[in-house]
Design goal:
The protein is mostly beta strands. The chain has two domains: 2-13 and 20-221, Jelly Rolls; 224-310, Endonuclease I-creI (Roll). The protein contains three helices and 20 strands. The strands form three sheets. A nine-stranded mixed sheet has the order 1-4-16-6-13-17-18-20-19. A hairpin with a 6-residue loop joins strand 19 (281-287) and strand 20 (294-301). Helix 1 (248-264) crosses helix 2 (270-280).
Length: 310
């Protein structure tokens, strides 16, 4: 199994571009292990306090590990990425930062350090959330393929994926992404120990991780926006569509339309799909702080739709 070490500078990039040089080549169906630093790109230290936030160089935030060239991938295909496992670091951090988050500048800056142990996060920052234990739900905040053209910053999510901050991207989940350039050029970043829908203050519990993924290639598969197959809970699998754009309302509409497209593949009519989205779909804000773009997801329990007779 190939190992890609994101702690080496030559394996990182700081923009989405079709011109990024691949750090590895893989065959479709190959499993790889990726060592991914935290979203500060190794700048944050466990012994840092709030005063140390000023040390962070924001031009180096959210560096992505990759890109990885998938042999045989061509424009118009899709990648199927199975997240096999995510092993987090032993500590993480959260922060309120100036001019960032849903309530930017309402509160002062604050850095919180968490110990990650026994499947829980506990604050080790003095006199702050010390009686709280937050259950861990590790996932990857960033998975993306290269755009067809142009260059994009790392923080706003895009139609090709990127900084989706969608907590459905946990171990056991499968992500579908469009292929826009030869080789797809897929990259990974921004591990989270856990996060609530919306990531409203601008950070989750940021941490490092080692992720193992299997990347398959689906020829001639049209994917306009990222799609996920995941678990709503330990009892049910679900399919997740996404809308990504600069309007929350339009992103929600896109997520609904994408789900209608998905349900059509199961044999439902447009009218049937629209009703199902209303009576059984769960529309949620997955990420609202990486402006100018937002991520809205729609989750549908697979058990409701899998028995449809085509």
């Amino acid at each position: 199994m190939k190992v890609i070490d994101g702690y080496k500078e030559e394996n990182l990039h700081f923009k989405w571009s079709p011109h990024n040089s691949p750090v590895a080549h893989i065959n479709p169906g190959e499993k790889i292990s990726i060592k991914i630093p935290d979203s500060s790109t190794m700048q944050m230290k466990k012994d840092y306090s709030t005063a140390d936030l000023a040390r962070i160089d924001h031009s180096r935030v959210d560096a992505a590990v990759g890109p990885v060239y998938v042999d045989g991938a061509e424009k118009g295909d899709a990648l199927k990425i199975k997240i096999e496992s995510i092993e987090t670091g032993t500590w993480g951090w959260s922060a309120m930062m100036k001019d960032f988050g849903s309530l930017s500048n309402m509160f002062g800056e604050k850095l919180i350090i968490w110990e990650l142990r026994d499947n829980k996060a506990k604050s080790i920052t003095e006199d702050f959330l010390n009686d709280v234990a937050v259950p861990l739900n590790p996932f990857l905040g960033i998975i993306g393929t290269a755009p067809e053209d142009g260059e994009y910053g790392m923080i706003p999510p895009q139609t090709f994926g990127g900084n989706m901050d969608n907590r459905f991207l946990r171990a056991g989940s499968t992500l579908y992404l469009p292929v826009n350039v030869p080789g797809a050029l897929i990259s990974f970043s921004d591990p989270h120990a856990t996060q609530g829908d919306g990531e409203v203050c601008g950070t989750a519990i940021e941490t490092s991780c080692t992720a193992v993924v299997t990347i398959e290639l689906i020829k001639n598969k049209r994917v306009k926006y990222p799609r996920i197959e995941s678990m709503e809970s330990m009892k049910s699998d679900c399919i997740v569509s996404m809308g990504i754009g600069d309007s929350m309302e339009e992103s929600a509409r896109t997520a609904i339309m994408e789900m209608i497209d998905i349900l059509s593949e199961y044999g439902f009519s447009g009218e049937e799909s629209y009703i199902l989205c209303s009576v059984a779909g769960n529309l949620r804000i997955s990420e609202m702080v990486d402006m100018p773009n937002f991520v809205v997801s729609l989750a549908m329990d697979k058990s409701i739709i899998e028995n449809k007779k085509i």
